[in-house]
Every structure is written in C-alpha cells, then in structure tokens.
Amino acid sequence: MAPYASEDSESGARRRKAVRYAVPVAVVGVAAATIGLVPALASSGDPDLPDITARQLIEKIAKSDTEQLSGTVKITTDLGLPSIGGAAGGGLMGGGERGGEGGSSADPQSKLTELATGSHTLRVAADGADRQKLSVLDDASEYSVIHNGDDVWAYDSKSDEAYHAKQKQGAHSDGSGEHAKKAPKGVPATPKELTDEILKAGGDTTSFSVDGTSQVAGRDAYRLQIKPKQSGSTVGAVTVSVDAKTGTPLKFSLTPAGGGAAVVDAGFTKVDFAKPAASTFDFKPSKGTKVTEADELAKAQRGERGALPKDLKADELKAGGLDDLNVIGKGWTSIAELKLPKEAGGLAAGKGSAEMPPDAQKFLSSLGDQVKGEFGSGTVYSTRLVNVLVTEDGKAYAGAVTKDALVKAANAG
Q1: What are the b/e assignments for 229-259, b being 16+ CB within 10 Å?
Q2: pLDDT 10s digits, 280-316
Q3: Which terminus has fewer CB within 10 Å in the chain: N or C?
Q4: CA end-to-end span of the chain
Q5: Is 35 exposed, middle or buried, given 0-12, 13-18 or 19+ CB atoms closer than 10 A?
Q6: Could you tell me if 272 and 350 lie in one domain?
C-alpha cells in the first residue's frame, strides 16, 4: 500500500501512532547523523513533464522497484557546529581513528559518523537486498563498506585496516546481530534513505506539494516539497527530487525555518540503473592488512569496560534507555523527554565531567545557553536544526523545535 493511501485502515492507525515519535527519532536522527549541505547540484534546466499531484508522486516513490543502481553522491553536513579540532566531528560523535588495542579504524559503527560534518563524496552500488557497497572518497584515501551475502566487510585504505562481520554475529559492540545487515542506524547515505525517514513522519501535521521540475544527474525529475503545518518547528522545508521514470529519489534537501543555506542537501551527481558488475561487491584483504573480527572486537570492548562500579545500581543502567522515553506532542513539533544518568548533571550547568576531554567540554560550552523556568534551571544546546534542553533535575528534552518550545515542555513536565 502506498503511504497515506488510507487513514482509516489498520496500517494508517499504526502510522498515526508512529508520527508521535517519527520526528524526534527519524528527522532529528537524520539531522544529527548526516545533515547539511551548501547546495551541491545545480539544475541544468527545468524539463517539461506531465502534471502530477503530490499524492501521485508520493505513491510513485512508494511503488519504485529500483533494486539495482550505481552512482556518485555528494553530501555535505552543516549543523552550524563550531570547529574545535576533531571534537565536532570525530571526538564527540564517535568518528575518527580507533585503531590499536580494543578498536578498529575500519569499524563502520564509528567511521560512518564522520558524515555528520563537512562535505563528502560517496560512491554507491546496489544489487538487490544481498549486495550493497558504499565508499567514502577522500583526496588520498577511501573507506568502503561492502555487504555481499552473509558477509559484511569494511576497509579503510588510510590505515590499511579491515573489519569483518557475519550477518548472524552483527557488529554492535554489545554483540547484537542487526548491525551487519546494513549501515549503522541514523546514518542514511542515499537520497532514498533520507526520503524514507521523512515520509515516515507524515500525516496531518505535514503538507505535500509538487514544486516544479528539475534535472539531477542528467535525469528529469519532479520536485516534491514537504513542509510542517505546525508552528514552532525548526524545519523549514524538505525538497526531494524524484526521478520521473523510475520514481527513485535522486536528491534530498532540508532547509531550516531560520533561513540560510540548506541544513541537508544530498544528491546524485552520476547515476546508472543498470546491474552493477558482480566484482563490485568482492573483497579480499591483502597480505599485511590488519583484520578485526566483529565478535572479537565486541569481546575486547566488553573487557575494557570491565565490571560495573559497586555503587551503580541496576535501575541506574536503565536510565536513559528507550524505556524511559516519553514523546510530547506529535509530528514536526514532537519533543522527546528522557531521564538522564546522574553523571549527566554537568551538562545542565553548561559543562562536562572530569572524564570528558577538554575539547569536548569547550565544544559543549560553546553550544550551551543557560535558561530558567518553572522546571528550575538548565542549559539548551543548539544547532541549526536540533535543540536539546538538559535540566538540573536530570532530564533532557530534544527535538527539531525552538528553545521556547523546549522550555514550555519542561515547565509542563
């Protein structure tokens, strides 16, 4: 069934329920993990295409059966975060080098979070559900994640390190088995993945319209514009360029309500819908390449964490988990309320903890804005899209909403 086709069906009811958490989890997740681009692709003319309604275009996307493609994607991230060494990119967000004891620089769980900042060129290929490849190209190096059948390989040419996981063993540090099936959650890498996240957040809080036509990567496309109907969201509009022939999203752009350059803009510069060569998904580490197995890495990381402190109670381990998540409101102005561990108290004061690196503390201070309300006092951490309020009583309120909306939610809570 196409999205939004029936609001009174069982699937429609589930979708309406999902809308309550789709924005903070999906849209904000996209923002935090891979957002922002000074528009990378210039239009080469507006093609004359048959008229189409927004509903028809959404259904065209949903019906798209594209399973085979290859191409080049340009993506740039600009949340408006200050540049403080590696803090904003790798140090704070989990990226950067992790080679040596207990880690691997080729681990996708950390490496792909580098897409959260700066401009990147990606090469992508897909041949059905069992074969995909994503490569992040640098001036003098390349990082690739290859899924071929039961195997997931990642290779970092800069460090000559490889990472290997079987689907059944996964690649999360906790040993769970979902990670090996696809790239880490929250790191959409193609326009279709970005679009899918937004489509999940639809409903009566969202307006859809067709905003003309364009050409992307030499292909005729319709422009689907998605806007919040609600006031108070920091999202201005999402524009998706949809291939007129196949229904495949070719370009994705998210602009903030505050104006200025796009917060997200990712699109194909080249695309081919032919079946990629089987050799595209072949990988065998060269002699001398350091290979880290997922299960061995998980064991090593568990060993590094060691035993839990004696004064740490079991119920404290649950704090900050999804079981404590409460969603306030719905649609684009949804706010996620979460209880934080006691150690997070320093965040409410606009600083970190003794264990936090100096660069990270400086980074947090640069984002923080002290606020007060009926809830007490706390600090709002802001980007161009996502705002987070951390209160002194150990709660966090996060969403793609204004600071005032967060304070209002905290007062009500």
Answers
A1: ebebbbbbbbbbbbbbebbbbbbbbbbbbee
A2: 999 999 999 999 998 877 776 666 555 545 454 545 4
A3: N
A4: 38
A5: buried
A6: no
pLDDT in tens, 99-157: 445 567 888 877 777 777 778 999 999 999 899 999 999 888 899 999 999 999 999 99
CATH number of the domain that residue 285 is part of:
2.50.20.10
Question: Is 100 in the same domain as 55?
Answer: yes
| Judgement on whether residues 275 and 397 belong to the same structural domain of the protein | no
Domain count, the chain: 2
Q: What is the pTM of this model?
A: 0.72
Q: Which domain holds residue 140?
A: 36-295
